[in-house]
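User: I'm new to structure prediction. If I give you an amino acid sequence, what do you actually give back? Let's try with this one:
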Amino acid sequence: MPESWSNKDERQYEHIKSSAKKKGRSAKTAKRIAAATVNKQRSSEGRTKSGGSKKSAASKGGSSKRSSGGSKKSSSKRSSSSKKAAAGRKGGKATARKRSR
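Assistant: Good question. You get back a string of structure tokens that encode the predicted 3D arrangement of the chain. For your 101 residues, that looks like this:
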């Protein structure tokens, strides 16, 4: 493990690696997943030279909902299927083709 990792990082790495092995992953894959997860965590906390920002998932746009409620494309630029889908979500008339069997 890299020298820059703390004891906490090493414990987290071992825990993730053992969990991945229990789920049936190979040892090589488990190590890769564990290292990537620990490095991502360190980066998001700003503990790397490349230095990630200390933004939460909501401020990155991860799981937050848009307050304006919409797409950036205007209605005239969307395909017909996306117009129907948007109408269905908004409670409008969503006309779909009937399939003949």
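You can read the tokens as a compact description of the fold. Here is one thing that stands out. Residues 1-44 form one domain.
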